[in-house]
Design a protein that fits this description.
Layout lengths: L3 H7 L5 E3 L8 H9 L4 E4 L5 H14 L4 E6 L5 H10 L4 E5 L4 H7 L5 E6 L2 H9 L5 E4 L5 E2 L5 H11 L4 E4 L5 H9 L4 E4 L1 H4 L8 H8 L6 E4 L7 E4 L2 H11 L4 H8 L2 H6 L24 H23 L1
Parallel strand pairs: 1-9, 2-3, 3-4, 4-5, 5-6, 6-8, 8-9
Antiparallel strand pairs: 7-11, 10-11
Helix pairs in contact: 2-3, 8-14, 11-12
Bound molecules: ligand TUI.
The site of ligand TUI has 19 residues, from strand 5 and strand 7.
């Protein structure tokens, strides 16, 4: 069975991991994905520790399946999130936006499986040397904070560079993406944007609608000059950001424009002046469906594609 090294490592049924999305990936969404046989992940993001702890308590009531947590290493709340992962014995931890060395040192002895999200081969190799048990290779089609390489190039590069299971991320919404991930040497996929448009996701309906109606070339990347490029649905906010960047505005002015924008989109539904983080794959998402439908549909479609490809190769 394709992806067995990943599903065995994580104790899950299908090789589908939910991407960690700050403000969006809460206990409800993560539990829905885990209950459907994937791996749900609670995003620590910049969540204050007392609120994150509530999510960790809640998910234990919502699922008896494995789930994980993601720590955004650039966040000032990252050290507190690491301690909560230790306290609640979180089984799987993904990290993003930085080097996971210290997190691995602290949590691996407790039995936590660490899967750093990386955007380059160099960071993947270093993370495996530091003890990572799997790697999520995230291409620049993804939403939120991104690297420079595409999924198509990054995935095979990482898969040939490390000897642990690789999870392919960035641009994947369906069975075509899952089959392609296997073809590139990955053992599974991480899916973000598609799960935002799930019935169980508690994001504001305006956010889901913005993704459902998005067409190709609907996203914009801002923040590149500051070294932290972020992909969002193009709107008034991204245009203002890009204008400031074009005019070489001081970093403080750019930072000020960004304050509170993700919350505004996710909680208040402000899709014009909020930060509607999304992958390019929003163009491939046309409906809102239950997580179980998304996952089983993806797996059966991939099996059908792989069967057909197998038949043609003979
Ligand atoms: O982390 C993500 N995606 C994110 S984090 C986020 S929250 C945020 N909000 C506003 C501004 C910025 C971020 C939204 N989306 N994806 C995983 C990811 N990790 N992409 C790239 C990387 C990465 C970058 C550098 C991983 C490691 C790394 O290492 C650098 C080094 O030298 O160690």
């Amino acid at each position: 069975m394709l992806g067995k090294e990943l599903t065995d490592l994580l104790g899950i049924k299908y090789p589908v991991i939910q991407g960690a999305m700050a403000w969006i990936a809460n206990a409800e969404l993560a539990a829905a994905v885990s209950n459907a046989g994937g791996l749900g992940i609670i995003a620590a993001g910049n969540t204050p520790p007392e609120l994150l702890e509530k999510e960790l308590i809640k998910i234990r009531e919502l699922t008896d399946k494995p789930y994980g947590m993601n720590i955004m290493l650039m966040s000032p709340t990252a050290p507190a999130a690491v301690e909560l992962a230790a306290k609640y014995r979180v089984k799987v931890l993904t990290t993003g936006a930085g080097s996971p060395g210290k997190v691995i040192e602290r949590l691996k002895p407790l039995g936590t499986i660490i899967m750093p999200v990386v955007a380059s081969t160099a960071v993947a190799i270093r993370a495996v040397r530091q003890g990572a048990q799997a790697i999520v290779a995230e291409g620049m089609e993804a939403g939120g904070h991104i690297g420079e390489l595409t999924t198509m190039v990054l995935t095979p590069l990482v898969a040939q560079a490390v000897d642990v299971p690789v999870v392919c991320a960035g641009g994947i919404v369906d069975g075509r993406g899952l089959a392609a991930a296997f073809a590139m040497g990955a053992a599974g996929v991480q899916v973000g944007t598609r799960f935002v448009c799930s019935t169980e996701c508690t994001v504001h309906p305006n956010y889901k609608n913005a993704l459902v109606k998005a067409k190709e070339r609907c996203t914009a990347v801002t923040g590149a000059p500051t070294g932290h490029p972020v992909r969002c649905i193009e709107n008034k906010l991204t245009k203002e950001f890009l204008k400031l960047e074009y005019d070489h505005a001081p970093n403080e002015q750019i930072e000020k424009l960004g304050t509170g924008r993700l919350r505004a989109a996710v909680v208040d539904g402000d899709v014009e002046m909020g930060s509607v983080m999304s992958g390019q794959s929003a163009a491939l998402v046309n409906d809102v469906r239950p997580c179980a439908d998304i996952i089983t549909g993806m797996v059966s479609e991939a099996e059908e594609i792989l069967r057909k490809l197998g038949a043609k190769a003979q």
